[in-house]
Structure formats: structure tokens, C-alpha cells
Specification:
Blueprint (H helix, E strand, L loop, with lengths): L14 H8 L4 E6 L5 H14 L7 E5 L2 H13 L4 H6 L2 E3 H13 L9 H15 L7 H15 L1 H7 L8 H8 L3 H14 L16 H11 L19 E4 L7 H12 L5 E6 L28 E5 L1 E2 L4 H11 L4 E2 L6 E7 L6 H20 L6 E5 L5 H10 L3 E5 L8 H14 L8 H15 L13 H14 L4 H12 L2 H23 L4 H15 L1 H8 L3 H19 L4 H16 L10 H9 L3 E6 L8 E6 L15 H12 L2 E10 L5 H6 L14
Parallel strand pairs: 1-5, 1-6, 2-3, 2-4, 4-5, 7-8, 9-14, 10-12, 10-13, 11-12, 13-14
Helix pairs in contact: 1-2, 2-3, 5-11, 6-7, 6-10, 9-10, 11-12, 13-26, 14-15, 16-17, 16-20, 17-18, 19-20, 20-21, 21-23, 22-23
Length: about 700
């Protein structure tokens, strides 16, 4: 293969990178700093193997997250590999690999539970079987605990290490540090998911990361009845295995990795990680895998460093040093500016003004540097912080695409509000998108917890009835009003029906008063607060969403909507703003939520499109300019976070995505320690980077 296929003048490897690229050691573990081009180094290692004669299909890449899959594919293209070659190199997440392997073993695709709300009925059925009452927040706590247990293989390993007589449930609970009732609940839920004696060797469904967990048990159980030779879906003929994001590797992923290496005994291995970038500890990530315990069939590990940052210059490297409390060098051939801005505003307008300040800083940078907006990203701690930003982007005429968050006008709780407002004012023009109409129907049915009436026969199941309603409303948005009146109001609980009826009446009256011109502007601006109050949304949200974080986000979306509504003199003006946002989405500016990869690429290629994302969903990616608003006490770091080190790691990930400029914003007098760290006026206390 010609050398020109992977050499590029845009990137000159350092001595550290050359050592990794050309190493003849069969098993290499790379401990890296953020911005040290670890993903690019993996790509160079792949190119080196291609140069030595390995076919592209013999090079496999594994990551923990889907954004990292994209980052590795981008790195392969960045170093100059031909697109046709990159396409032949398999790159996927651990869970995607596990799904592929299990699909072959089970001879069919197992349904997936996509949300905590979908899992809640299973947990409640298990509670009922055990005769236990549901405690407030109990389902959320259980799902979090179950995710950790599965990621760590904690229960399974406790059983495997005990030869002879198995431990009793009380002994297992004591070993795991769990209340006995919680362990019983876990086992009951797993039996509902994967009955031990149902005569079928596959589960009824899988939840998040369950594919990795199920495959890990098949591979790691010392008494397994499914030997490696029978798992035909495991890729064989792998010559080089590249693993990115080793800092997020958990015991289940490690078991899959061990099995993959066992059936590819002659394969070379190269994995990279940075323990300060762990953001998935809730899934059981363990730093021990970066500290010499990456056991791969008795192989001797060759540990190599990757310390100097190519992504950013010393100004940002010094911030990373203060934040992570470890040495940082920079090998970047360009400058990086760090700017810390404060917004002076009253609480009621602080978010809106700070969002405008963020967008104005973005536009000023684009004008000064003549760089496209697609080179920039606005990163948020929480998805619900996007309300003010999306409004500001639209107000300034800036196109945007989203990552890791649904545009706020398409959030389920916001769609409920939009449905009721449309019924109140007949504003169906704002619901032009067929995707929005489908999501709207699904959202209001979710919120109202109704069983729709049948169209043809009573034998129609719930999904068939839902699809019928979707088809009608997609064909004619005017059908939304009879749907709300005949299905939702009549079939919801009396309390919910009354709340929706009151809210519709308030919105309708506000529209009528504004139309007659006989009401003061102050009254116009109060209507939405009365509308939200009539719905009694805190109680409603608590009944719908399982996770407390999701409940808090829903209420934050409503607060954001209320602030946005207060910026408009009349309800009609606010409706028009929602329609404007919807129009942006319809034009494909948030095509990351499209099912078509071509649409995603088109949106990403648009030079005038900025990325709006949550920090966790850009790990592995980089941007010329990163803007991080709302870096305020209680918001970033989050006052309700489980652990301080997780917040620090998230912020570390966010700032180290920047190449030429980092802009951090906060309200004056409310700046968090992270803002001050970027300003050079404070050093964040050293924190343990990951839980033991």
C-alpha cells in the first residue's frame, strides 16, 4: 500500500506517537492526556499495520460510546487513509459488538427497552411479586444500582469466586454491600427479563448495556455451557485490535475484550485511555484497567505514555494542569486563547442575556478569524440549558445542529404544551413536520397515560392504536383537536383532564384578549405562567418520569419556556417563535436526530452550522472554538451530582475539546470554581479521578 495513503503534512507525529505507531510489542497500553491526539495515534497505528500488509478487515476498532466511533473514523480519514479503506475497517462500540454476537447466537434480534420509563413497569411488576411497596425515587435508585452491578459483574463475580457450596442470598447481599431486598429485586427483574427456565435461550428484552452484560456472562462464567467456539458471531481473523476510551472500560466490557482476544490469539492490541476523562463510572468503569490490570490471556503489557497536547497550546494546557493536578505539556503549533466572560443581569433575564452573549461571542470569533461556524461548539452541562441558547441562536439567525440532546421544542413535555396551545389557538401551522406530529402524539399519550380507543376491532393492541392516531394527525394536523378532546380528555384521569381543560381555557382567553387589544402588555406576559400553573406540572412530571434528573430537567424546560414566553408581548408572538424554531428543525438544522446518515453528514458539512451539545456527548471530538456558558455555582458543577470528581472530569472533557479558543461564561457574582480555574484565579482541589 502506498505510504501516501496515510501520511499527511497537517500532522507531524511526536516521538511518543512514533513509538506507539511503530511499536513491535504485541500488547500496548497507552496512558494519555486529553488533547494528546490519542485517537489519531490509534489511526497511525492502524495505518502502520496496513503498510505492513494487514488487510483493512483485519483491523478492528472498539470504543465505549457512539461519538467515539465517529471520532476514530474521522481520525482514520484525517491521517489520509482513502475513504474506501476506512469503510472496510470495522469500528463500533462494545455494546454494538455484543448485540451482533448475540444476534447470531440467538438467531433473532431481541427487543430493546430504550428508556427508564419503558423499564419502570418491569421493576414495578417485580416489586409486586416480592410484595414490596414502591418508595419515592425507588425505581430510579434501582435502575442505577442495577447498571452498576451489571457493569462490574459484581453479583456474578461474587458467585464465581466461591467454589463448592454457593453463597446464600443474605451472604451475597452482605458481600456486595446491598440491602437484601434490593438484591432480591435485582434477581426478580432479571428473571422477568431473562427467565431461567423458559425453554428459550434468549431474553425477552434488553435495557441499556444489557447486551454487553449478557455476552460478558457467557464469556466469563467458569461454568459456562457456551464455549468460545460456539459463539460464531465473535469476529475472528483480527490482526490488530484498537480500543479507544479505555478509561470507561468496566468488568463486563473487559470480559468481552478478553473473549475477543482469546479467539484472536495472534492479534496485536493497542488501547488508549485517560483516567481524568471518566464520565461513565455509574456504569462500573474502573481505573484499574489503566493501572496494569488489563488482563488479556496472560499477555505482557507494554505501557507507553502520550502526554503532550497537539490540540491546544500552553494557555489551555495550564488550565488542564490546574484542573487535573497533573503535568501537562503542549506540542501544538498554534495559539489557544482562554477567555472568561461575566454577564451582569437580573435573575429573571440572566439566562437569556448570557445565551445572547454566548452567541455574540461566537459570531465575533467567526468574523475575526474567518472560520466557519461548523468549527465551533457550544457545550452544556445539562440538555435543558439549551432553551435559552436555542432561542438566542434563532434570534441571531444562526443555524445549529444538536448532539446528545433533543431540540427543546421536541422534548416530550414541551410537545404536550405545544399540543394544548395548538388546540387553544388553532395554530397547527407550527406543526408542519411529520416527525414532530408523530413525536407529539407519542408524547401526549405518554404524559396522559391513556389507552386509546380502537379504530376497527377491539383486538388492536396499544401500538396499533397509537400508529392509527399518528397516521391521522400526520395526514391532517387539524385532527389534533378531536384527538385531544375525544381521546385524551375523555380517557385521562379526571384530575389530568381537568388540568388540561383549564390550561386550554387560559391560553384561549389570552389569545382572545390579545386579539381584541383590550388587555395590557403585562397581562399578556403573565398568561403562560398561569397556563403552566393550571397544569400542575410538578405533580404530573413526578408521575411520568422515573429519574430525578429527568424530572428536574422537565421542570427546567418549563421554566425556560416561561422565560421565553415572557420575552414576547402577546401569546401569538410566542406561537410564532415556536413555529420559527420548528421551521429550523424542518430545514434539517438538527439532522443529528434523523434516521438517515446522509442527512447527518449534510448537516455536519454545512459551514454555517454550529454544534449545540452536552459535554458527555462530544468526548473524543474537537472543535476550533468551544464555548461553555452557565459555568456557575450549582449548575457546573451540578449541586446535585453524585460525586465531585465526576463533575470535574466532565468539565475537563469539555474544556479540552478546544483547539484555538475556549470561552467560559457565567453570571457575575455566581461564577463557579471551574470558571475561576479557567481565569487563573483559583486551582480546583485535587480530586480522586475515579471511584475505587
Amino acid at each position: 500500500m502506498p505510504t501516501a495513503l496515510f501520511q499527511t503534512t497537517a500532522f507531524t507525529p511526536t516521538d511518543e506517537q512514533l513509538a506507539i505507531q511503530t511499536s513491535r510489542a504485541p500488547t500496548v497500553l497507552v496512558r494519555a492526556n486529553a488533547g494528546a491526539a490519542k485517537t489519531t495515534t490509534l489511526a497511525l497505528r492502524a495505518a502502520e499495520s496496513l503498510q505492513r500488509g494487514l488487510e483493512p478487515e483485519g483491523i478492528w476498532g472498539l470504543t465505549f460510546t457512539e461519538p467515539a466511533v465517529e471520532a476514530l473514523q474521522q481520525a482514520l480519514r484525517k491521517i489520509g487513509l482513502a475513504p474506501a479503506i476506512v469503510k472496510r475497517i470495522p469500528v463500533m462500540s462494545f455494546d454494538t459488538l455484543a448485540q451482533r454476537v448475540l444476534r447470531v447466537a440467538e438467531h433473532e434480534t431481541v427487543p430493546t427497552m430504550a428508556t427508564a420509563e419503558a423499564m419502570a413497569p418491569v421493576v414495578r411488576e417485580a416489586l409486586q411479586q416480592l410484595g414490596l411497596n414502591e418508595e419515592p425515587g425507588g425505581v430510579e435508585h434501582f435502575l442505577r444500582s442495577a447498571r452498576w452491578l451489571k457493569g462490574r459483574l459484581a453479583l456474578d463475580r461474587a458467585r464465581w469466586v466461591q467454589p463448592g457450596e454457593p453463597l446464600s442470598l443474605p451472604e451475597l447481599a452482605d458481600t456486595l454491600g446491598l440491602p437484601l431486598h434490593e438484591l432480591r429485586l435485582f434477581l426478580t427483574c432479571e428473571n422477568l427479563r431473562y427467565p431461567a427456565q423458559d425453554g428459550v435461550d434468549r431474553p425477552f428484552f434488553r435495557f441499556e448495556q444489557d447486551a454487553t452484560y449478557d455476552l460478558a456472562r457467557l464469556l466469563a462464567d467458569p461454568d459456562t455451557t457456551t464455549p468460545l467456539a460456539e459463539l460464531q458471531g465473535l469476529p475472528r481473523h483480527v490482526g490488530l485490535l484498537l480500543v479507544d476510551e479505555l478509561h470507561d472500560l468496566n468488568a463486563a466490557g473487559h470480559a468481552v475484550l478478553q473473549g475477543l482476544m482469546a479467539v484472536n490469539a495472534n492479534a496485536a492490541f493497542c488501547g488508549v485511555g485517560d483516567e481524568d476523562q471518566v464520565v461513565h463510572a455509574a456504569a462500573g468503569a474502573e481505573r484499574r484497567f489503566l493501572q496494569g490490570e488489563l488482563e488479556l490471556g496472560g499477555r505482557q503489557l507494554t505501557v507507553l505514555p502520550l502526554t503532550a497536547s497537539h490540540r491546544f497550546a500552553p494557555a489551555l494546557a495550564s488550565v488542564a494542569h490546574r484542573l487535573a493536578d497533573k503535568p501537562y505539556a503542549s506540542a501544538a503549533g498554534h495559539k489557544t486563547q482562554v477567555r472568561c466572560l461575566s454577564c451582569i443581569a437580573e435573575p429573571a433575564t440572566a439566562d437569556a442575556l448570557q445565551a445572547l452573549q454566548t452567541v455574540d461571542a461566537l459570531l465575533a470569533w467567526a468574523k475575526d478569524t474567518r472560520r466557519p461556524l461548523s468549527d465551533a461548539a457550544i457545550l452544556l452541562r445539562h440538555a435543558h440549558h439549551s432553551v435559552a441558547l436555542e432561542n438566542a441562536l434563532v434570534e441571531r439567525g444562526v443555524d445549529y445542529q444538536t448532539r446528545g440532546l433533543q431540540p427543546y421544542v421536541r422534548q416530550p413535555e414541551v410537545l404536550l404544551v405545544r399540543a394544548l396551545l395548538a388546540v387553544a389557538g388553532g395554530g397547527y401551522d407550527a406543526l408542519r413536520s411529520l416527525t414532530t406530529r408523530e413525536e407529539l402524539v407519542r408524547s401526549v399519550v405518554l404524559f396522559c397515560d391513556v389507552e386509546l380507543g380502537f379504530e376497527e376491532t377491539e383486538s388492536e393492541d396499544a401500538e396499533a392504536r397509537l400508529q392509527t392516531a399518528i397516521r391521522y394527525i400526520q395526514a391532517d394536523a387539524d385532527m389534533l383537536r378531536p384527538f385531544v378532546e375525544q381521546q385524551l380528555l375523555k380517557r385521562s384521569s379526571p384530575q389530568r383532564a381537568q388540568a388540561m381543560t383549564r390550561a386550554i381555557a387560559i391560553a384561549r382567553q389570552a389569545l382572545e384578549c390579545a386579539g381584541k387589544g383590550n388587555s395590557q402588555e403585562a397581562t399578556h406576559r403573565r398568561w403562560f405562567a398561569e397556563f403552566v400553573q393550571a397544569l400542575d406540572l410538578p405533580h404530573w412530571v413526578g408521575q411520568v418520569f422515573v429519574r430525578q434528573e429527568r424530572r428536574d430537567a422537565a421542570l427546567a424546560y418549563f421554566d425556560g419556556l416561561q422565560q421565553a414566553a415572557a420575552q414576547h408581548a402577546t401569546p401569538q408572538a410566542y406561537f410564532e417563535r415556536l413555529a420559527q424554531l420548528e421551521s429550523r428543525l424542518e430545514e434539517g438544522l438538527a439532522a443529528t436526530h434523523s434516521a438517515h446518515k446522509r442527512a447527518i453528514r449534510r448537516a455536519a458539512d454545512r459551514k454555517s452550522t454550529v454544534t449545540l451539545a452536552t459535554v458527555a456527548d462530544v468526548k473524543g471530538l474537537e472543535f476550533e472554538h468551544v464555548l461553555m456558558p452557565f459555568v456557575e455555582t450549582g449548575r457546573f458543577p451540578d449541586a446535585h451530582a453524585e460525586a465531585a470528581w465526576q463533575e470535574r472530569n466532565l468539565f475537563y472533557v469539555g474544556i479540552t475539546r478546544a483547539r484555538s479558543r475556549l470561552t467560559v461564561l457565567a453570571r457575575e457574582g455566581h461564577q463557579s470554581p471551574y470558571w475561576h480555574c479557567c481565569a487563573g484565579s483559583a486551582k480546583v482541589p485535587a480530586l480522586q479521578s475515579i471511584a475505587e
